[in-house]
Amino acid sequence: MRPAQIPHGGYGKLVTYKLGLLIYDATAAFCEHYFDRKDRTFDQMVQAARSGVANIVEGSEASAASKKTELKLTNVAKASQEELLEDYRSFLRQRKLPMWDAQSVNAQTVREARPENLTQLRQLMACLVSDLSDKSDQSDKNAVKQEVAANTMICLINQETFLLARQISRLAEDFEKNGGFTERLYRIRSEKRKQQERK
User: Fold this and answer.
1) Cβ 151 vs Cβ 109: under 8 Å
2) Per the count of CB atoms within 10 A, which of 14, 75, 127, 158 is most buried?
3) Angle CA(82)–CA(158)–CA(128) in degrees, nearest 5?
4) Cβ neighbours, 10 Å, residue 156
5) d(CA 114, CA 14)
6) Angle at Cα 27 formed by Cα 5 and Cα 12, nearest 5°?
7) Domain ranges, residue 85
8) For residues 52 and 79, what is the distance between their CA atoms, to the nearest angstrom?
9) What is the tally of structural domains in the chain?
10) Is the confidence at residue 194, as pLDDT, over 70?
């Protein structure tokens, strides 16, 4: 079912919602492991991940009344994910850890695995850590774990922003053609006003 065709409140069926929820849960776990709770980055990352989900939910709920609001909130969800993406990139850069190329074997492995929950994601990361530890001369296994954790999240967020961009495009197309209740009501009122002015 195309995102634009899902009825209001049907966010649970959206792939972007399901993936966003996984990103939120995984980010909370990541921050618990790698940041002190007093660190501002902890709150910023968790809030950005939460916003990525919350705005999809709010947009879906608002869609019955206003497609314009749904479109706006879905854009906010995408912007929140992009903010989170930059935090993960900074995590790697500041620790001088490698960022995986989008076409690398590791990045492709993450994309193809499509984990649906935190347990599956942790199993995927454990396999990647094991594989990299075997192939790498790097003695610090903790650094490998950090590399895998951050890069895996970057892969998931890139998938999410790609899917949200497609969703936004479809919502924009639907809005242009049909609008929502509020927009249709506005058009009806405008037409009535014009008719009265002609009399």
Assistant:
1) no
2) 14
3) 125
4) 25
5) 15
6) 20
7) 3-198
8) 8
9) 1
10) no
What is the rounded average pLDDT of the residues 127-154? Answer: 87
Question: Angle at the Cα of 22 (from 20 to 27), degrees rounded to 5?
Answer: 95
Amino acid making up residue 135: K
DSSP string for residues in the chain = --GGGSPTT-GGG-HHHHHHHHHHHHHHHHHHHHS-TTSHHHHHHHHHHHHHHHHHHHHHHHTTT-HHHHHHHHHHHHHHHHHHHHHHHHHHHHTTPPPPPTTSHHHHHHHHH---SHHHHHHHHHHHHHHHHHH-----HHHHHHHHHHHHHHHHHHHHHHHHHHHHHHHHHHHHHT--HHHHHHHHHHHHHHHHHH-
Tokens standing for 13? 């069926």
Task: Please give the model's pTM, rounded to 2 decimal places.
Answer: 0.83
Q: What is the mean pLDDT of the chain?
A: 87
Closest C-alpha to 158, from 94, 110, 90, 92: 110
Two structure tokens written together for 172: 């924009």
List, for residues 45-90, the tens digit of each pLDDT value.
Answer: 999 999 999 999 999 888 777 788 889 999 999 999 999 999 999 9
Residue closest to 15 by CA, chosen among 116, 125, 109: 116
- Crossing angle of the two packed helices 15-34 and 40-62, in degrees rounded to 10: 170
User: CA-based Rg of the chain, rounded to a whole angstrom?
Assistant: 21
